Fold this sequence. Notes:
Blueprint: H1 3-8, H2 24-45, H3 50-75, H4 79-103, H5 105-131
Helix pairs in contact: 2-3, 2-5, 3-4, 4-5
Amino acid sequence: xxxxxxxxxxxxxxxxxxxxxxxxxxxxxxxxxxxxxxxxxxxxxxxxxxxxxxxxxxxxxxxxxxxxxxxxxxxxxxxxxxxxxxxxxxxxxxxxxxxxxxxxxxxxxxxxxxxxxxxxxxxxxxxxxxxxxx
Length: 134
């Protein structure tokens, strides 16, 4: 999430009771981006295999989905589409984590927190979309 997104949070009229304070979100994403990248690096460094190739493909898809969320939610205010993006990211990261575990257990452990966070983020995004029509 970018600083622009934090500024745009002021345009949201109603937040769910489980929403985190605005500064928490980019701080968490910073940590998750580091752990996710470290996970992918560990998989990349593993010996070549079909599981490795599949895991890296899933990680690339997750990177694209992660990148798309902020412009969808805050730039274009397509909150339901952003929610679908967040749900897809949670599913792709779950699949990545499962596949990474076949290559490197530590890589899977590094990716697992993002599965939990993106599941929470999907619920938050859906609630915000419902409370704040564009």
